[in-house]
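Lab notebook, bench 4. Still working through the backlog of constructs that have no structural model yet. Next entry is a single chain of 246 residues. Request: give me the structure tokens for it.
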Amino acid sequence: MVRPTIGITSPLEWVEEEDLERYEAGRHARLLQTLGAATVILPRGCGTAKALEHLKLDGLLFSGGGDVDASLYGGRSELAADRVDGVRDEGELALLRLAFARRVPMLCVCRGMQLANVAFGGTLIEDIPSALGADHGIKHHQVHELGIAPSEPTHQVLLQQQSMLASILGRSSIWTNSLHHQALRHLAAPLSAVAHTADGIVEAVELTARDQFFMGVQWHPESLPDRDESKRLYCAFIQASGTGAF
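Model written out:
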């Protein structure tokens, strides 16, 4: 297999290699490189033509970060105010839509999955505690709500049988970390929900048509690099980016 080059979105104005370990994009890059891919971290607002053509990217990973601007899906901005970045939203929405049209393999993590749903016309739960109640049983932001580090799994995710994700992971359920206060509400038409927590929150999506590699996960596999499930997910993404097959 040809070693693919994968672009990773970020909130950074510029990228300094010595600082990568401090950022989520750097943790994605480290794991992808360990598993055989080359990586390019894309600065905030990186143009779509430059990213896909000048950098000759074989795959795209849309990383986590702040809330997607609620005005983009008719949501309540007062509930979605964490690190909102209109420049990042605009650039990544354009990049995602163009990459989808060109059938570029994509892996969308946390904010990335939420951004993809908005890009295709879906909506978000702006704030899970506000929607479900502060005493809701499953705590979806383990750092803020439980004081547990991102490197520790805290809840179970149930996978839909016969989904591409279940096939990749080889399991019907997994334990994951959880670092989000938002979630998918109305699911966009191209997507199917293929994993949930027991409270009904969507934890993973893939394309209903399953005719190209497009996977979204709500958890953060880059913070669980030693787990078999993380390695399987990244390896499937790398394979699809390198060969177009999955």
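Notes after review: The mean pLDDT is 92. Residues 21 and 56 are 25 Å apart (CA to CA). Flag for follow-up if needed.
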